């Protein structure tokens, strides 16, 4: 900008609807000295835009849980058991309570589920489509309706790991083993994570462990 120029400062928007809030223009890259409308231009200057997430870890999610994962660029999320094309989500939130001391299932069917972040809802839906066995932990999370939302699910292994890493933002998790929705190639086993040391391992579907519903938005 040239000295003596009268400027109108634009209000910006980004191609990430619902995630970022434009906080204002700043005079340096460190974003500490905010530009004011009545500031005088005396030389060529460069202004820096500051963006802030609308929500952060530890805040309440739209389902009444606690946000434990934030991705500013968004991640691909599969909503149903049959989805091959996902939607973009930016947050994962965990329910404030869960199911304690329940088996995963009463049988050994291999669902063939995935471990990646964004696949937990699809995994859980695959369990609901299986009619031979009863899936206790997945069904509890699938049927959970906290905050009036009906899109809760049992986390995939990678989603569960994010819950472990960020467990302080959620609270009330303890140091138990938690079920994921990620099946193992051995039909008798499914992956769990120990919330005392973060260890992940496949274990018997008939063992009584803990479950915590999560959802994406």
Key attributes of the depicted protein:
10 strands; 2 domains; three-stranded antiparallel β-sheet; 217 residues; single chain; 12% helix; alpha+beta; 3 helices; 28% strand; elongated
Structural notes for this entry:
The strands form 4 sheets. A 3-stranded antiparallel β-sheet has the order 3-4-10, covered by helices on one side. A 3-stranded antiparallel β-sheet has the order 6-7-8. The longest helix is centred in the middle third of the chain and has 10 residues, at 120-129. The mean pLDDT is 90. The chain folds into 2 domains: 1-54, no CATH class; 66-216, no CATH class. The protein has 3 helices and 10 strands, in the order βββββαααβββββ. The radius of gyration is 22 Å and the shape is elongated. The protein has 217 residues and is an alpha+beta fold.
Strand content: 25-35%
The helix-strand sequence is EEEEEHHHEEEEE
N-to-C CA distance: 40 Å
Q: What integer value in Å does the Rg equal?
A: 22 Å
How helix-rich are the residues, as a percent range?
10-25%
Q: pLDDT average, as an integer?
A: 90
Strand line-up of the largest beta sheet = 3-4-10
Q: Characterize the main sheet.
A: 3 strands, antiparallel
Shape: elongated
- Give the count of structural domains: 2
Counted beta strands: 10
Unreliable residue stretches: none
Total helices: the number is 3
**Backbone structural class:** alpha+beta
């Amino acid at each position: 900008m040239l000295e003596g120029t009268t400027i109108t400062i634009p209000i910006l928007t980004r191609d990430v609807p619902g995630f970022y809030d434009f906080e204002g223009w700043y005079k340096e890259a460190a974003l500490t000295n905010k530009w004011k409308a009545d500031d005088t231009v005396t030389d060529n200057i460069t202004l820096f835009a500051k963006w802030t997430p609308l929500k952060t870890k530890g805040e309440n999610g739209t389902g009444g849980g606690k946000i434990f994962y934030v991705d500013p660029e968004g991640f691909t999320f599969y909503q149903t058991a049959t989805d091959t094309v996902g939607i973009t989500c930016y947050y994962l939130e965990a329910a404030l309570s869960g199911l304690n001391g329940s088996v995963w299932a009463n049988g050994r069917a291999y669902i063939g589920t995935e471990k990646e972040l964004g696949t937990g809802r699809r995994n859980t839906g695959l369990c609901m489509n299986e009619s031979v066995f009863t899936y206790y932990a997945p069904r509890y999370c699938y049927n959970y309706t906290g905050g009036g939302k009906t899109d809760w699910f049992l986390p995939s292994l990678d989603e569960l790991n994010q819950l472990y890493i960020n467990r302080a933002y959620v609270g009330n998790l303890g140091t138990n083993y938690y079920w994921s929705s990620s099946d193992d190639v051995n039909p008798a086993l499914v992956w769990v994570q120990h919330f005392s040391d973060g260890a992940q391992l496949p274990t018997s579907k008939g063992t009584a462990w803990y479950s915590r519903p999560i959802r994406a938005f």
